[in-house]
Amino acid sequence: MELIKAILLIFPAYVANASAVVIGGGKPIDFGKTWRGKPIFGKGKTWRGLIGGCLCGIATGCLINYFTSYFGNGIEAFTVIFALSFGALAGDLIKSFIKRRIGKKRGEKWIIADQIDFLLGAFLFTYILNKNWFLTNFKLHIIIFLLIITPAIHLAKNIIAYLLKLKKVPW
Predict the structure, then answer these.
(1) 3-state secondary structure of 26
(2) What residues contact residue 98 under an 8 Å CB cut-off, 6+ apart?
(3) Residue 97: CB partners within 8 Å, gap ≥ 6?
(4) 61, 12 in Cβ contact below 8 A?
(5) Percentage with pLDDT > 90 across the chain
(6) Beta bridge partners of 76
(7) What confidence tier does 157 reach under pLDDT thresholds 50, 70, 90?
(8) What is the pTM of this model?
(9) Which of 13, 58, 59, 23 is nearest to 44 (CA)?
């Protein structure tokens, strides 16, 4: 039961990350600008994906919270759900920024970083915005469980997105 709760707690981040791919497109977040001759984030990171993914994650978290109250009440719940959703996308953006700096191209595989960037971002933003909630709900064994299971879930999601022609690569 505790592991199912762990999946429900991180699910807004999963949904935000996946939804950004489906909803994405349009104007890049970096507006096509470069820094030191390389794209800042790249064409694949768009405003529509960021906003849409974040909103989908928030909606998912609100729905889960309606039935469970796992995220708390009122502003606390919204803050936690927002941190999980936005943090997931911010983690992906940070990874993309680093990828561009080390010369990796859009869609180029970067094992492990491609699978847990959003998870680490969700953890970090949630910890920053509500440390007490984070420490109460994400004990070390839960974090380890999520770090192990997330790459498998992420890979399966990416393969499905690739088969549906939503992604150009299956990773």
Answers:
(1) coil
(2) 113
(3) 40, 41
(4) yes
(5) 77
(6) none
(7) confident
(8) 0.90
(9) 23
